[in-house]
């Protein structure tokens, strides 16, 4: 197992992996071939441990670096870029809410190559934040009963953080072993995008956990912490990676296959002035999203270093701004690709629609209209955004 020591090594490792992951990304999507060997390679690279704080043996990379690593992998394969998102979320929960013993125990296992998934969201609840899965006291430990969905990464995980409601009605996080008795991970994700993320169901039936495997969760939003901004930053990075892939593939197709429009009076599609203009527009919008992602990373660093009401609000707004542009450019690039490349680009053998499908699926995670509202309210009315992890 490689142990990455700094930001430079992390970025270099991500670029090397991305070159390998790109090669069969289209086939994995079209065949819904689960990326098991790729995930093993991803884990062995040491990248899943880069956000572990240095005091615990990790690289403790900046959040801008963490976001760029995710964007780089997502540009190669959108699903592979999303799978570790909740792993890094779990690392951040441990950092801000774990006991010293929990940090030492779990961080060492993460650095040794263990992958964390998630079992947070549920279907059929009144809101996306509501939870029904129960954590019930049983002797010196607890039993968990419930059903989860959108459990990205659980299919590939060694441990699954599960959001639960305890006997007092307080939300906690239980870190459950993937192979624990009573745990069923069901590969029933049928979304038309992000097809190999394994974002299906987790069923928990009388699953036993010890007190040491449970840590506070709700309290991370009752006080200012960087948890919400970190989660949202990673979502923005995934979308930016998808946008990069769409723009790259559009350019390759136009250079090698597309025909110039008859009224352009040019021989090659790449010389069509209106096509050139559209590529320029997409490139500028992508550069803007990338710049906001980097600025948001710096704001999250500041909030993680000194979590105050003001610093966490500023980080949330910076990330919301990045997510507005990352949402829009990922959708625009995935759609405009076909307009610029032409009808040939819609043929199934090219599978270029995967970029739009991936963007449309992933950008539904949190409604962008509410990010506009949060940003506007912050600047116009000096209202801080809510601390619930979805802004």
From TrEMBL:
Residue stretches making up the Acyl-CoA dehydrogenase/oxidase N-terminal domain: 12-114
Matches recorded under PANTHER family: FLAVIN-DEPENDENT MONOOXYGENASE, OXYGENASE SUBUNIT HSAA (PTHR48083:SF19), MEDIUM-CHAIN SPECIFIC ACYL-COA DEHYDROGENASE, MITOCHONDRIAL-RELATED (PTHR48083)
Protein name: Sulfur acquisition oxidoreductase, SfnB family
A single GO molecular function term of this UniProt record: acyl-CoA dehydrogenase activity
Alphabetical GO biological process terms: fatty acid beta-oxidation using acyl-CoA dehydrogenase
NCBIfam families associated with the record: sulfur_SfnB
Signal peptide: none
Entry's family note: Belongs to the HpaH/HsaA monooxygenase family.
Residue ranges constituting the Acyl-CoA dehydrogenase C-terminal domain according to the UniProt record: 233-366
Keyword line: Oxidoreductase
GO cellular component: cytoplasm
Source organism per UniProt: Collimonas pratensis
Keyword Oxidoreductase assigned: yes
């Amino acid at each position: 197992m490689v142990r990455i020591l700094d930001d430079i090594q992390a970025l270099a490792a991500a670029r090397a992996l991305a070159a390998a992951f790109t090669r069969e990304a289209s086939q994995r999507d079209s065949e819904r071939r689960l990326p098991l060997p790729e995930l093993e390679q991803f884990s062995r690279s040491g990248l899943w441990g880069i956000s572990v704080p240095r005091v615990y043996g990790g690289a403790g990379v900046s959040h801008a670096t963490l976001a760029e690593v995710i964007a780089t992998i997502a540009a190669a394969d959108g699903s592979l870029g999303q799978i570790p998102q909740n792993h890094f979320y779990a690392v951040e929960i441990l950092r801000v809410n774990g006991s010293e013993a929990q940090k030492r125990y779990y961080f060492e296992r993460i650095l040794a190559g263990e992958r964390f998934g998630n079992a947070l969201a549920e279907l059929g609840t009144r809101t996306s934040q509501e939870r029904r899965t129960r954590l019930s006291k049983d002797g010196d430990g607890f039993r968990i009963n419930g059903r989860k969905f959108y459990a990205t990464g659980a299919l590939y995980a060694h441990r699954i953080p599960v959001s639960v409601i305890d006997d007092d009605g307080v939300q906690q996080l239980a870190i459950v072993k993937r192979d624990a008795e009573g745990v069923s991970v069901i590969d029933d994700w049928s979304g038309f995008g992000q097809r190999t993320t394994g974002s299906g169901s987790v069923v928990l039936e009388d699953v036993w956990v010890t007190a040491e495997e449970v840590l506070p969760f709700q309290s991370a939003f009752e006080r200012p912490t960087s948890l919400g901004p970190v989660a949202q930053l990673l979502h923005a990075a995934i979308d930016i990676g998808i946008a990069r892939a769409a723009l790259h593939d559009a350019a390759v197709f136009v250079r090698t296959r597309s025909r110039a429009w008859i009224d352009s009076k040019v021989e090659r599609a790449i010389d069509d002035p209106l096509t050139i203009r559209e590529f320029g527009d997409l490139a500028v919008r992508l550069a803007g999203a990338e710049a906001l992602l980097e600025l948001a990373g710096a704001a999250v660093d500041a909030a993680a270093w000194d979590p105050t009401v003001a610093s966490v609000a500023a980080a949330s707004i910076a990330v919301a701004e990045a997510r507005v542009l990352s949402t829009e450019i990922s959708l625009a690039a995935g759609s405009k690709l076909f307009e610029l490349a032409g009808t040939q680009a819609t043929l199934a053998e090219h599978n270029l629609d995967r970029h739009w499908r991936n963007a449309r699926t992933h950008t539904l995670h949190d409604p962008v209209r509410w990010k506009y509202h949060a940003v506007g309210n912050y600047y116009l009315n000096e209202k801080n955004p809510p601390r619930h992890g979805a802004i």
